[in-house]
Design goal:
With 169 residues, the chain is mainly alpha-helical. Helices cover 73% and strands 0% of the residues. The protein contains 4 helices and no strands. The radius of gyration is 31 Å and the shape is elongated. The N and C termini lie far apart (82 Å).
Length: 169
């Protein structure tokens, strides 16, 4: 048998063997490329979430309306009267000025809690970076929830909707 003659009888030719290895190698390269692509996509999503989280937090730090609402919320939170009284309409005996102030305070509380609710939904959906926000907002968020939870409980009971601010909770 010469070197160039193909082997037969239960064995494969050198050419078939090389072609088989090439096919297997192509499959492995395809699998590796797919896995690398998936990992790259996931890393890019994480980077995008962190970037969006930073932009959200940074934007709030410079947004005049948010700053004003936040300052008012902190005053209401820390005044000692509690936030729950703003979950109900103002008294019928209140003056128009008192009613207007009551409504303004209730609006301020809702604005801040709505912001927290939106952030919580962003975290749940993977749009915002939970670890970044946890590091940045943990202490104020806990203080705000402790103060706001009676307000939320009152809203849930009065409206019969247990899902109010459930994401923030």
């Amino acid at each position: 048998m010469t070197e160039s003659a193909p082997l037969i009888l239960g064995t494969i030719t050198q050419e078939a063997f090389v072609l088989g290895l090439t096919g297997v190698a192509a499959i492995w390269i395809g699998i590796a490329t797919f896995r690398l692509g998936v990992r790259t996509i996931n890393e890019q999503r994480a980077i995008a979430a962190t970037r969006l989280t930073f932009e959200t937090v940074h934007g709030n730090n410079w947004d005049r309306d948010y700053i004003e609402k936040r300052i008012e919320f902190i005053k209401l939170r820390d005044c000692g009267d509690g936030l729950a009284l703003y979950a109900k309409p103002s008294s019928d005996r209140a003056t128009d000025t008192e009613k207007a102030q009551h409504n303004k305070n209730a609006s301020t509380i809702r604005a801040i809690l709505n912001d927290y609710e939106t952030i919580a939904i962003g975290i749940r959906r993977g749009i915002l970076d939970e670890e970044f926000l946890y590091r940045y907002m943990r202490s104020p968020l806990v203080r705000d929830w402790v103060a706001a939870s009676p307000y939320v409980v009152t809203l849930r009971a009065d409206y019969g909707i247990p899902q109010i601010y459930v994401e923030f909770e």
